[in-house]
Specification:
The complex is a heterodimer of chains A (about 210) and B (about 400). Chain A is an alpha/beta fold and about 210 residues long. Chain A is built from ten helices and six strands. Chain A has one domain. Chain B has a domain of about 230 residues: Rossmann fold (3-Layer(aba) Sandwich), CATH 3.40.50. In chain B, strands 2-1-4-5-6-7 form a six-stranded antiparallel β-sheet. A six-stranded mixed β-sheet of chain B has the order 8-12-13-3-14-15, with helices on both faces. In chain B, strands 9-10-11 form a three-stranded antiparallel β-sheet. The chains are: A alpha/beta (about 210), B alpha/beta (about 400).
């Protein structure tokens, strides 16, 4: 099966690719859309239409919206095509990465006790779901708090943002090898319901063909 | 008249390829996919047709036939180019020109090529005007020269020679404009527009030149507001220059010549000039280089406007990697040719015919969104993960 993938930045693309390699290794990625990330949300309707030709697997961050279903309703006014696999990382793809607490702490040399933990949280719905628990945005927590607990100077230099910058100067070169080679999805999905559901959605897509 | 179709056989990275061209065509593809080589096939026809040109020198300028022949070519050693020419609106072309040639062979003799076949077909007359080799007329020596390059032989299809002569290739190298009198080696002088740009201006009829500068100034007033009164001058030695007033804190600003112009300004001037001046096909090599994205965004529509304003519509072929150009909503997918590397040489397709690209555009995304991710190297993100050890 051939699919298009849609992400926000190199980290979300890498996460989609890794998830696909994990649960659907036979899927072939046609191309990564759009040409410039960060435009995902304003092009939702186009991606929905595109999925009539080939399935579209999209991953975006929850950002400020209260809950995932609300975000989807807000962005997509028409009916969602069943081959449009819309995934929202709660609260960001970075939270999914840290959800593999063991792998993350080992790769970045952080004491396991210093890693954030998962908690049952209400996302606006009735049911409590398990997600990583952060007091702020997970990527901010990673680059401003957790980074100080990393034992290697190399990692701290790569990830700590310069004044006024949103991310560290070598954020992607530092994160991508972790996602590619060390991030353990089996461990991470236990701590993140939103990740687990992305895996289930892709499984459903494969069964439907 | 425009070139409606070009068919290449063993030409550089095109082993067998047929490409439909429109009046304005954008040629895209990854690096080293053959964009410049496609343009070079047209420059080759120009080099055959131009004064003091000819087949042998056109081949020689490119380093001999071994540098032209496709690497994917196996047993076939011939190279051929076929073009169909006609009016934009007409579906049937007017002319077809076909040239097929190969190495003369013969060891230590000078490396030359011989013509296997040269044909001119007129669709209006529904017959061949020329079919070589002509039995009893052509011999080993005559087959070294095309009839296209010989005014005594091309009487019935002179239109083609003139048409090919007017092909203009533009790739302004700012350094070349600045150092036009230096000894930097340039094998294809007239191509790397710049080296002879100032000379060209000097040779031009004064009234025409003034009119062009008037239009140039109007454009520059908006695009580069700190430059004023661009004009052509000759210094006391008679050497041509372009000069403009650079506005700054002094009331009158100060005069600057091409030596002081920025790369972007020089490229913009060269680009505008060729659009205004040329009568034939214009080949634009990555016009986005050195220019601010705000200016680049305007290029597709500016080109369309210039094309419409001339009496005879001129064809413009543009190679580009630019997001800003390709996100213009006025570009039709029929105007975009995508080159892709395959084991059997480069393939070329209009993007409206590519199964995996066409739906992206149909869904409402821009051509840039459809083709830029599609043509980028699959693992390009890996370059930032490379271990760098100096």
């Amino acid at each position: 099966m051939k699919v298009y993938i849609v992400g926000e930045d190199p980290v979300t693309y890498a996460v989609i690719e890794k998830v696909l390699a994990f649960c659907a290794p036979k899927i072939e990625i046609i191309t990564k859309l759009p040409a410039r990330g960060g435009e995902v949300k304003c092009k939702i309707s186009e991606f929905n239409k595109l999925s009539e030709s080939f399935p579209v697997i999209l991953l975006t961050d929850l950002d400020a919206t209260l809950c995932a279903p609300l975000l989807l309703a807000e962005l997509l006014k028409e009916n969602k095509n069943e081959r449009f696999i819309f995934n929202i990382a709660v609260d960001e793809a970075e939270a999914w990465l840290m959800a593999d607490r063991e792998g993350f702490s080992k790769y970045f040399n952080i004491e396991i006790g210093d890693m954030p933990i998962a908690a049952l949280k209400k996302q606006g719905g009735r049911k409590k779901l398990i997600e990583m628990d952060f007091a702020c945005k997970s990527s901010w927590y990673l680059t401003h708090e957790l980074v100080n607990k990393m034992k290697k100077k190399e990692h701290r230099d790569q990830l700590t943002p310069k004044p006024g910058a949103a991310k560290g100067p070598e954020y992607n070169p530092c994160m991508l090898p972790f996602i590619d080679k060390y991030w353990n999805i089996e461990r991470a999905r236990i701590n993140s319901d939103s990740l687990n559901r992305m895996i289930l959605r892709i499984g459903n897509l494969l069964n439907k063909k | 008249m425009i070139i409606k179709k070009i068919t290449l056989h063993n030409w550089k990275n095109f082993q067998n390829c047929s490409i439909e061209l429109s009046e304005r065509t954008f040629i895209i593809g990854s690096n080293a996919s053959g964009k410049s080589n496609l343009l070079d096939a047209l420059r080759f026809l120009r080099d055959i047709s131009k004064q003091a040109g000819g087949l042998q020198s056109a081949v020689e300028e490119r380093g001999g036939i071994t540098k032209i022949r496709c690497l994917a070519a196996r047993t076939q050693t011939n190279v051929s180019i076929t073009v169909e020419l006609g009016e934009t609106q007409e579906t049937t072309p007017k002319w077809r020109y076909h040239l097929d040639f190969m190495h003369t062979g013969g060891g230590i003799r000078k490396s030359q090529v011989k013509i296997n076949s040269e044909e001119v077909y007129s669709y209006e007359q529904a017959k061949y005007i020329l079919q070589r080799p002509i039995v009893g007329n052509d011999d080993e020596e005559t087959l070294k020269y095309t009839h296209l390059e010989q005014v005594t032989a091309n009487k019935e299809f002179r239109e083609l020679q003139t048409f090919f002569q007017d092909i203009e290739y533009l790739n302004v190298i700012p350094q070349m404009v600045r150092e036009s009198s230096s000894s930097i080696f340039s094998a294809t002088k007239e191509d790397y527009y710049g080296r002879n740009f100032l000379e060209k201006l000097a040779k031009m009829n004064e009234r025409t030149r003034n009119s062009y500068f008037r239009q140039l100034n109007e454009f520059l007033r908006i695009a580069v507001p700190q430059l004023e009164e661009l004009k052509f001058i000759k210094d006391e030695m008679g050497i041509p220059h372009i000069e403009a007033r650079y506005i700054h804190w002094r009331a009158k600003g100060s005069k600057q010549q091409e030596m002081q112009f920025s790369d972007g300004t020089l490229r913009l001037i060269g680009f505008l000039f060729v659009l205004l001046d040329n009568n034939g096909i214009i080949l634009l090599e990555e016009p986005e280089i050195n220019l601010h994205s705000g200016i680049v965004t305007q290029l597709p529509e500016f080109i369309a406007k210039v094309q419409r304003s001339k009496k005879n519509a001129r064809q413009v072929l543009i190679t580009t990697h630019s997001y800003d150009i390709l996100s213009n909503r006025g570009i039709s997918p029929d105007e975009v040719i995508l080159l892709e590397n395959t084991a059997e040489g480069t393939s070329a397709n209009t993007i409206s015919n590519i199964e995996e690209v066409e739906p992206i555009i149909r869904s409402g995304l821009t051509i840039a969104d459809a083709v830029i991710p599609y043509t980028k190297p699959k693992d390009i993100e890996k370059v930032i993960q490379l271990k760098i050890d100096f």
